[in-house]
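A reminder from the course coordinator: this example appears on the midterm review sheet, so study it carefully.

Given structure:
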């Protein structure tokens, strides 16, 4: 438990919420109006809907990063609460999220933790107003990011609050509505696909299958990442996505970082890249791997719902205006 907690918390983040509602079609939601960009004077609220973090953790570096943009980051004491391996009981974490989302003066919700717990907040009945809001997170908070997009609300960004300055500046650019550079990986299946982005941790997304918070992926470009999962477990999860029909109508599929301990691999086992190619390479859409996102560095931010182009020949993912 400690090993998995440390793997998932190291740089994990969260942000956002979910509304129990219909799974709107990705193409229809692509026309959702954009959010006003963050500006000087914007207020951001920190939350921690997952695993507890050390009570003496300091957030000075993040506060300073926000202040440099003219933003005020509010960090309530609840982010360092603890109930067993959660940062408070489910209803307490749901209340903190609801408070952040309901405050009309809060422009963005940022997670400071990860691990496990965000899906339990959804189960506890967390809902947020129909007004859109910026949110930032990844890893465990993928459940919240997916649920936000499923509810038709733009503004969810898959990315981390930590990391080097260049990585943070990409996140800042997205929050300000500015263009960002394409991400380059390695193309495995050629072709060009365009559609709204859906980005998720594979394990977390897998455990939303069959729930009200899994969005429709029809016409979307899906990007997966994960940490600490052996190839055979990634194989098992992707088989479930395939068998559930979730990958039947994609515009493209890409993979970020899939990091795990390789010391238990046996002769004849599939490598991680072989599993990804075998399970995702026959979908009839472009496939790109090794994008610089996910656990580890760099973890370049990507916005859910924004239209993008995936070029399988060049191995490139580009955001469209």
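Designed residues:
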């Amino acid at each position: 438990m400690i090993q998995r907690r440390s793997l998932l918390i190291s740089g994990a983040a969260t942000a956002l919420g979910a509304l129990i509602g219909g799974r709107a079609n990705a193409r229809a939601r692509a026309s959702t109006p954009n959010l006003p960009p963050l500006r000087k004077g914007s207020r951001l609220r920190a939350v921690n809907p997952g695993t507890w973090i050390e009570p003496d953790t300091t957030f000075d570096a993040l506060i300073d990063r926000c202040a440099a943009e003219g933003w005020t980051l509010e960090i309530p004491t609840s982010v360092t609460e603890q109930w067993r391996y959660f940062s408070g009981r489910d209803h307490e974490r749901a209340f903190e999220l609801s408070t952040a989302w309901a405050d009309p003066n809060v422009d963005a919700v940022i997670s400071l933790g990860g691990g496990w717990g965000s899906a339990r907040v959804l189960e506890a009945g967390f809902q947020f107003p129909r007004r859109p809001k910026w949110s930032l997170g990844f890893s465990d908070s993928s459940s919240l990011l997916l649920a936000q997009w499923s509810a038709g609300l733009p503004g969810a960004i898959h990315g981390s609050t930590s990391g080097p300055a260049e990585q943070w500046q990409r996140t800042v650019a997205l929050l300000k509505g500015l263009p960002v550079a394409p991400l380059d990986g390695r193309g495995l299946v050629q072709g060009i696909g365009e559609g709204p982005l859906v980005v998720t941790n594979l394990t977390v997304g897998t455990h939303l299958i069959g729930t009200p918070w899994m969005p429709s992926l029809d016409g979307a470009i899906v990007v997966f990442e994960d940490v600490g999962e052996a190839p055979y477990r990634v194989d098992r999860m992707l088989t479930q996505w395939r068998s559930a029909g979730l990958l039947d109508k994609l515009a493209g599929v890409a993979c970020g970082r899939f990091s795990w301990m390789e010391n238990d691999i046996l002769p004849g086992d599939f490598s991680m890249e072989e599993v990804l190619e075998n399970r995702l390479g026959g979908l009839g859409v472009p496939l790109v791997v090794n994008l610089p996102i996910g656990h580890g560095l760099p973890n370049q931010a990507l916005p859910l719902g924004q239209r993008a182009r995936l070029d399988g020949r060049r191995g490139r993912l580009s955001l469209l205006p």
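The radius of gyration is 18 Å. Confidence is low (pLDDT under 50) at residues 1-32.
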